[in-house]
Write a structure and sequence with these properties.
This protein is mainly alpha-helical. The protein has one domain. Helix content is 68%, strand content 0%. The longest helix has 28 residues. It binds zinc ion. Zinc ion binds next to loops.
Length: 208
């Protein structure tokens, strides 16, 4: 069973419990992706980081992966190795570190290069420990926070997706290619922003 499939099964069980215990289907009048998404958002609103995550301008699939990361629900090799599912726990990206969630999304050399490239292009410091919580604590404008949160989540997704792809075909994109892809995503998001504050106009003019 693939790692992604296991993660999906875990979420499926959460939704099943939500149906049985929370019964959102009865409230919404039938299952839709939207009703499930809203239910999960409401459920997670009690957690501080979740509010930041859902309010950011990240695209939904990036938010969903970030939510799994923050819930420690990603099946990295260290976790699978502990359960005897894989032969080793060496990070596939750098081939040196232990593949834990903290390593893959924070300290791995490969992931760090992507994060540094994206943060440099936004002219912001490199987040420490947890990027989402770190950005949430900055004294920045709401707009800047939402864009930077979207950037961090795009980095997480950009690192995790090729990692899984590389396990199948052995091809790993360079960090600089990922940085360029993320910059394109962010620029298209920023073009749709309505910016009125001078501080935001000035900041965005340096990165567009
Ligand atoms: Zn690594």
């Amino acid at each position: 069973m693939s790692w992604n499939w296991k993660a999906i099964c875990k979420i499926k069980d959460e939704f099943k419990n939500g149906y049985v215990n929370g019964n959102w289907l009865a409230e919404k009048g039938g299952y839709t992706i939207r009703s499930g998404y809203d239910w999960i958002r409401y459920k997670e609103h009690k957690v501080g980081w979740a509010k930041l995550l859902w309010k950011s301008w990240a695209i939904p699939k990036h938010k969903f992966l970030s939510w799994l990361i923050l819930r420690n629900a990603i099946n990295v090799k260290a976790k699978l190795y502990k359960h005897g599912v894989c032969q080793d726990e060496i990070c596939y990206l750098c081939n040196t570190g232990q593949e834990t969630i903290e390593h893959v999304f924070q300290s791995c050399e490969y992931a760090s290069l992507v994060m540094v490239g994206v943060c440099d292009s936004l002219h912001i410091p490199i987040p420490t420990v947890n990027g989402i919580i770190w950005i949430g604590r900055r004294q920045w404008s709401s707009l800047k926070k939402r864009i930077c949160l979207a950037a961090v989540m795009a980095v997480y997704y950009a690192v995790w997706q090729p990692l899984n792809q590389a396990r199948m075909d052995g091809i790993l994109l360079t960090p600089s290619v990922l940085v360029q892809q993320i910059q394109q995503i962010l620029k298209s998001r920023m073009l749709s922003c309505k910016v009125v504050a001078n501080v935001d106009v000035n900041w965005m003019s340096t990165i567009m």
